[in-house]
Design a protein that fits this description.
12 strands; 9 helices; D-Maltodextrin-Binding Protein, domain 2; 2 domains; globular; 40% helix
């Protein structure tokens, strides 16, 4: 009888756990929780009242209207985004996340909703001039943990000394002070940081190879959701949504890119 009771208790626990798990079909929910780190203007940031704002926020709101769903933006540290998605704390990620083979092992992605470029900020006295110079045991690459810059360095410059830190500002300061040779990130950030440290850094505005675009991340196997997200991206590029977002949030950055002879990626 004791064995039977134990079996019944275990079965009851498993049934309870199964009933409380978040449904895998996000499209069944009335509200979609969207994870993003609100520290990356002009895409993901906050206004003076602490409310989410930026190009990614507007894209998220447009997605909600397209799917006829409420959207809730969950401010999440970048390294915690994929774990939060896997655990069900959030439903999708829209946070300037580049599609990589390493990330695709854990999550699925939509089609790219932007192109993606990586460039370098280097110390003024560094010998690094091109991406080929990075793969050297004497080179120190400072990266923000969990970002595409860190992943790119790991995959493409295995001989380099790779130093991961928690904050972007810390990584940039390390390079500015000569404690690191290079910081790898998107061109928006590279241009901004070079302007902040014009006397101690150089911006190398040549795209690094082996990068894909930004995608919307979701849990593995949510094929219906991925289909709807891809339909939304295609529609948003054609119905004026992208044009509106560029006008409202990105005009200054587009002009800045043009000054450097770069094509804007959104």
């Amino acid at each position: 009888m004791k064995k039977i009771s134990i079996i019944l208790i275990i079965a009851a626990i498993l049934t309870f756990v199964g009933c409380t798990q978040r449904p895998q079909n996000v499209l069944e929910n009335s509200t979609i929780k969207v994870g993003m780190e609100l520290k990356y203007p002009p895409f993901e940031t906050k206004d003076e009242n602490g409310n989410p704002m930026g190009a990614s926020v507007e894209l998220t709101k447009a997605l909600g209207k397209y799917l006829n769903k409420e959207v809730e933006i969950v401010d999440t540290p970048y390294p915690s985004l994929i774990p939060a998605l896997e655990s069900g704390e959030i439903d999708i990620i829209i946070s300037s996340m580049t599609i990589t083979e390493e990330r695709e092992k854990k999550v699925d992605f939509s089609d790219p909703y932007t192109t993606s470029q990586l460039m370098m900020l280097v110390h003024k006295d560094s010998k690094v001039e091109t991406h080929e110079d990075l793969n050297n045991e004497d080179v120190i690459i400072v990266s923000k943990t969990g970002t595409i810059g860190a992943l790119w360095a790991q995959a493409n410059a295995p001989k380099a000394q790779i130093k991961n830190v928690e904050e972007e500002a810390t990584a940039v300061l390390e390079v500015s002070q000569g404690k690191g040779d290079a910081f790898i990130y998107d061109p928006l950030s590279i241009i901004r940081h070079n302007k902040n440290y014009p006397d101690s850094t150089r911006a190398i505005l040549k795209p690094l190879p082996n990068t894909k675009g930004w995608g919307i991340a979701m849990r593995k196997g949510e094929d219906e959701l991925r289909t709807r997200l891809n339909e939304f991206i295609k529609t948003a590029k054609e119905d004026g949504t992208y044009d509106r977002i560029r006008k409202d949030h990105l005009e200054d950055k587009i002009k800045e890119f043009e000054e450097f002879g770069l094509e804007f990626f959104f």
